[in-house]
Structures are given as C-alpha cells and as structure tokens.
Amino acid sequence: MKKFISIISSMAITATLSAAFCTNAADANSFKEPTFYFKGVETDGVEELLSGLIYVNQKKSSTIPAAIYIKDEDKVAGQVFVKWASKNKSLELKNITGPVAKYGATPYKEFTSDDSMNLATYTEINGMGANYSSISSAKPMAYTAEKSDAYPMACFDAVLTKDAACGSYSIDVINDNTYFTSVVCRPTGDGKFKEVFPAENSEALPLNVSDRKLGDLNDDSRIDSNDASNVLKAYAKNSSNQDSGLTAAQTACADVNGDGKIDSVDASKILAYYAYASTTKDDDIISLNNFIKGKK
After folding, report:
1. pLDDT tens, 67-83?
2. Signed CA dihedral, 13, 17, 19, 20: sign only
C-alpha cells in the first residue's frame, strides 16, 4: 500500500513539474511581438494629417524628414535588424543618420552615439537599414526610456525627384531576400530566444503628394464652398462606380483627413473650415489641417 502511495505521489510531482515546465515554455513564447512604424516630421509644405498620413505640397517642399521606430511593449528585443524602402523611385530615401544628434538618444542604453549602430543605404532597392546588435545578446537590450519608441531607431529624408508625379506614395518595412527584417527576442533572459519577422505587421508611412494646399481643389489659394462642392461631386461619382473626374493633384488634396477616402466627411470638414475662416481675423487663421486636428 505504501509503495502504491509512493508511486501516486511521484506521479503527482512529475505532473506538477511537467505543468510548470509547460507554463514557463508558454510564457517564453507568448509575448507580444515587436513591430515598426514611421513618423514624418512637419515642415513648411509637409503636414501630418489626422490619420498619420503625410501630405506634401510640392510647391513648398520636396523633402520629407522622417524617422523609424520600434514598438516593443514587452521589452523582449535582444537584436534588431530592420530594412525599409520606397518602391516608387520618384521618392528617394537619403541621408540616413542615427537619432542622437536630432533626438538626444537611441532606444537602447547600449548605443550612445550615432555611429554605434550599423546604418546602411541600399541604392539598388531605394532602401535603408538599421541593425542594433551587440556581441553579448543573451538578454533583452536595456531601454533608454520607459517605452521602446521614446526615441527613433534612425532618421532619414524622403526626397521627391523633380519629375515626381502627384499622387500616393508609401515607405514600407520590408523582408525581401537578403534585405530582411527580424527581431531576435529574449523573453526569459536565460539565453533562450525566438526570432520573429515583423515586416508584414509593421506600419507603412503613406504620403499624398500634390501641387497645392490641402483642401484647395481648384488651386485658387482659397479653401471654400467651391472646394467642398468639388469633393461632393467626386464622392457622388465614386459612389456610382464612375471616375471621380479629379486629377491626381486634386485627389491627393481632397482627402483632407487622410483616411484614404474622398467622401462627405472631407466636404464637411472643408465647409466647417470655410465658415471658421470667414469669421476669423486673417492673422489668427490656422491651417485646415490644424483645424481638423483641433489645434488652436
């Protein structure tokens, strides 16, 4: 009987240890995988719309300053290899630098200068890359601030060529043959790792390029009811599966909230702005974009 109880006890201990092992193994692989995203920097002629889309007025600027960030909520990154590119060669990626000079730090304490990480430009694919990897990578890298994206990984310029057409552009995180994006995650700190490839789940940087102010469809230097009317006409045509009748420049500037659609919402925002501008002193009028974003 005692021998039977001993066997039962041994089985219970084994089952408990096995369950604990399985739990630990699950914990090591149940973290939220890191992803990447971009931010454009607003300058004269370059605006970040409500949706995060970047609007560019070519008459004022052909250069869009930008930066790439890592979002790693569970702080598991041990090594980071990220590549990004613009498929449209009319939007050239240039002037990659580390973030220290512009932002004061990098995302990781181990990297303290702009030449401490490996930055590269790949002209053959109109792309760039940043590698954050140290000789000892058994543990996650230590973050400079509370959040992984308190500082960018790299800064760069997206430059429109002289013959760049009006329309939509995009900068994307890529995973293409030798130009791979991966993060070696060290969730347990004991040397174990899981490599993930987050290009597909990362956010692109969309841009709309035009030759006029946002919302000024007829390019008469005013944003008024005529522009709202043109938006509504285009929306009606699109809704009945007809061509909108807008040029590429008009299409780009008609999507005033940057949600990828030209509809009654855009027309409504233009009309609201027209009413606001009509009752505000010229020196106090803010831009349409700032009006939509609720800035004063």
Report:
1. 999 999 999 999 999 99
2. positive
pLDDT at 11: 41
Q: Are residues 206 and 275 in the same domain?
A: no
- Cα–Cα distance for residue pair 125/119, rounded to 1 Å: 15
Three state DSSP letters for 30-52: CCCCCEEEEEECCECCEEECCCC
pLDDT score at 4: 37
pTM recorded for the entire structure? 0.87
Query: What is the rounded distance in angstroms from the CA atom of residue 101 to the CA atom of residue 153?
Result: 12
Distance of CA 143 to the CA centre of its chain: 20
Decide if 146 is inside a domain.
yes
Question: What whole-number percentage of the chain has pLDDT above 70?
Answer: 89
DSSP output for 126-187: TEEEEEE--S--SSPPPBSSSSGGGS-SEEEEEEE-TTPPSEEEEEEE--BTTB--EEEE-S
CATH number, residue 82 = 2.60.40.680
Which tens digits make up the pLDDT trace of 137-154?
A: 678 899 999 999 999 999
E strands in the chain: 35-40, 46-48, 54-57, 63-71, 77-85, 91-97, 118-122, 127-132, 154-160, 167-173, 182-185, 194-196, 205-210
Report residue 246 as tokens.
């807008």
Residue type, 214: L
**Helical pair 225-239 and 264-278, crossing angle rounded to 10 deg:** 170
